[in-house]
């Protein structure tokens, strides 16, 4: 989706998407593009998956790997604006809402949770939320447990996922559906068109 849109907006620039799982594989794509190649990880964290990506691309000449989308300063504004839209749609006020950033997380790499926590700090500065917190699917605090603990609060959940896949849709929606209190899910942030601005900036395309 993002690659097609960027390709249309950037005539003369080769834009392609490569997969870590599935086809086309990221190594095959990296080898076929004209040099130099800027690889922009469409990831929300500097964690385990980024390390695997770097290992797989090691030794391929003529490319640089940028920092992941999830570490870009603009993402805090994208998250805040997405959450505000959901808050207004529910007729809630931001001051009475706990904004919960739901991320994958993993005990295999501390960078996964740390990236989400760093984003939460930036989002706190972008809006008058009652609180901005993080919760995870595969490390503590777990999303379901955190939603249960916030049963007396209005909660808006923003998914720190690149798409509406098994995690960004199924797992988060299951947890939200089981929550005992009033919860609204804004969906996975990676689907926002504003992500393309971050991709362009990370690739050095302005």
Description:
The protein has 206 residues and is α/β, with parallel strands linked by helices. Helices cover 41% and strands 15% of the residues. The chain contains eight helices and six strands. The strands form two sheets. Strands 4-3-5-6 form a four-stranded parallel sheet, with helices on both faces. It has a two-stranded parallel ribbon with strand order 1-2. Helix 7 (166-178) links the parallel strand 5 and strand 6. Helix 4 packs across helix 5 (110-124).
Task: Set down the secondary structure blueprint.
Blueprint: H1 2-9, H2 26-32, E1 37-39, H3 48-57, E2 63-65, H4 74-89, E3 97-103, H5 110-124, E4 131-136, H6 143-149, E5 154-159, H7 166-178, E6 183-188, H8 195-202
Helix pairs in contact: 4-5
Task: Name its key features.
8 helices, 206 residues, single chain, two-stranded parallel ribbon, alpha/beta, four-stranded parallel β-sheet, 41% helix
Bulk shape? globular
Strand count, sense and closure of the main sheet? 4 strands, parallel
Contiguous low-pLDDT stretches (5 residues minimum) are: none
**First-last Cα distance:** 19 Å
Q: Which strand order do you get reading across the main beta sheet? A: 4-3-5-6
SSE string, helix = H, strand = E? HHEHEHEHEHEHEH
Please give the share of residues in helix: 40-55%
Number of strands: 6
Average pLDDT, to the nearest integer? 93
What does the radius of gyration come to?
18 Å
Strand composition percent: 15-25%
Task: Quickly give the structural class.
Answer: alpha/beta
């Amino acid at each position: 989706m993002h690659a097609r849109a960027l390709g249309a907006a950037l005539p003369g620039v080769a834009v392609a998407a490569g997969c870590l799982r599935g086809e086309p594989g990221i190594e095959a794509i990296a080898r076929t593009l004209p040099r130099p190649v800027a690889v922009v990880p469409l990831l929300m964290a500097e964690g385990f998956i980024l390390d695997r990506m770097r290992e797989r691309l090691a030794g391929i000449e003529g490319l640089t790997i940028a920092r992941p989308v999830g570490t870009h300063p603009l993402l805090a504004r994208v998250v805040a604006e997405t959450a505000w839209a959901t808050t207004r749609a529910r007729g809630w006020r931001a001051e009475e809402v706990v904004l919960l950033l739901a991320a994958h997380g993993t005990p295999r790499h501390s960078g996964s949770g740390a990236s989400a926590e760093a984003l939460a700090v930036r989002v706190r500065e972008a809006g008058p939320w009652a609180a901005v917190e993080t919760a995870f699917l595969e490390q503590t605090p777990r999303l379901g447990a955190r939603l249960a603990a916030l049963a007396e609060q209005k909660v808006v959940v923003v998914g720190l996922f690149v798409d509406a896949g098994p995690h960004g849709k199924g797992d988060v929606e299951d947890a939200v559906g089981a929550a005992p209190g009033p919860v609204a899910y804004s969906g996975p942030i990676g689907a926002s068109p504003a992500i393309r601005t971050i991709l362009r900036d990370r690739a050095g395309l302005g």
